[in-house]
Design a protein that fits this description.
Adenine-n6-DNA-methyltransferase TaqI, Chain A, domain 2, globular, four-stranded antiparallel β-sheet, 9 helices, alpha+beta, 2 domains
């Protein structure tokens, strides 16, 4: 890296802004067209690569019909995703930028996104949005060769970095025993029941299952000493489980662990195992049931995220009343949440993902060695 030559570029000089068509999520039913293909519906969600759902909608509102490599930048929460398919886009009042480039691909996009994130996630926030004008004029740092962007270096660098990370992942899975991804009989049955529609689902208001409270103390990010030690400091960022860093403050202002931190104006949710401090606009979602834990919490977060996806992002703040009255669908037994089923389901999904990662790492190891050697 020390021998690499670098150059500064405006984002608009390396990526081209594309026209876009946005959809009010409340009008999805009116836009249905079952003669069309199923495509992903993207919003400013921070999970599932930004995909809210998959829909069959009229072709008139489809973006990227040719399925070109595309980067989406969401100005409100600085979230960035990559895709290679036609897609629908949730109405965000023009807050999403749709970017393409002739040489953009699934490998070098990681380099581009890393360079962009490095700039916008430190410079902008919800109260200081990365508008399209600001984004276009933002300067990113890229490797160059003979005065031009060095795409070959970017791709070989990403391949080498992936190989290194996969080796670390293999060591971690082996050390923790997670490489054993074989499903138990119970896990197989739960997945089969889910696929065949045998789950018993019921609708609950979030407020009937959880207590929603405001933070005990708001800490100004500009006035606290953020470091790598202390207690977690949770803010509205979509990165690192919402944790911006760690601070050393009066522990009477700590919020309880084993709760969900909820971004009041972003609806970003994360499970917090340990007690934590919060920044502005974070709500604390605490289960009323002692069976709630870090495993079934992932099920609740997924269904809450889906429920809130119907809202127009950033149009209003999710106060305690709004959060409490929002409904979610969860598996039940005897008209009560089936925590055991949710846990088994989540553990089965985790094992399937680990299996996919291990298989992917084996394939990448072979292909990356070829790239690095060349």
């Amino acid at each position: 890296m020390k021998k690499v030559e670098w150059g500064d570029f405006k984002i608009e000089d390396v990526l081209e802004w594309q026209p876009q068509k946005e959809i009010d999520p409340l009008k999805l039913e009116d836009l249905k067209d079952e003669t069309e293909m199923i495509y992903p519906f993207y919003g400013q969600a921070t999970t599932n690569n930004g995909i809210i759902s998959y829909n069959q909608l009229t072709k008139d509102i489809l973006n990227n019909e040719e399925g070109k490599p595309t980067i989406l930048i969401h100005s409100n929460n600085q979230n960035i995703v990559y895709l290679e398919t036609p897609f629908y886009l949730k109405d965000g009042h023009g807050a999403t930028s749709v970017l393409q480039a002739q040489k953009l691909n699934k490998i070098n996009q990681m380099f581009f996104i890393g360079a962009i994130e490095r700039v916008i996630k430190t410079k902008y926030s919800y109260n200081n949005k990365a508008t399209k004008i600001e984004l276009k004029n933002s300067i990113i740092n890229l490797p160059i060769k003979n005065g031009e962007i060095d795409f070959e270096f970017m791709e070989s660098f990403i391949a080498e970095l992936e190989a290194q990370r996969i080796a670390e992942l293999e060591a971690f899975l082996l050390a923790t025993g997670l490489k054993d991804y074989n499903l138990t009989k119970e896990e197989k049955q739960v997945l089969a029941d889910f696929e065949s529609g045998k789950f018993c689902w019921e609708e609950f208001k979030i407020g009937n299952l959880f207590d929603i409270d405001s933070y005990k103390q708001r800490f100004d990010a500009n006035k606290v000493a953020i470091s790598s030690v202390g207690k977690p400091y949770v803010v509205r960022t979509s990165l690192n489980n919402g944790i911006r860093g760690y601070i050393d403050e009066d522990e009477q202002f700590l919020n309880e662990g084993n709760t969900i931190s909820f971004g009041q104006d972003t609806a970003t949710m994360f499970y917090q195992e340990q007690p934590y401090f919060t920044g502005d606009q974070i709500k604390i979602v605490k289960s009323k049931d002692k069976k709630f834990n870090k495993i079934n919490a992932q099920f609740f977060i997924a269904t809450m995220t889906k429920s809130f996806s119907a809202f127009s992002w950033g149009s209003s703040s999710y106060n305690i009343e709004i959060i409490g009255n929002q409904t979610i669908n969860i598996p039940t037994i005897n008209n009560k949440p089936n925590y055991k089923l949710m846990e088994t389901f989540i553990l089965a999904i985790q094992k399937m993902l680990i299996k996919d990662v291990v298989n992917y790492s084996d394939k990448k190891d072979r292909s990356d060695k070829s790239v690095i050697q060349n």
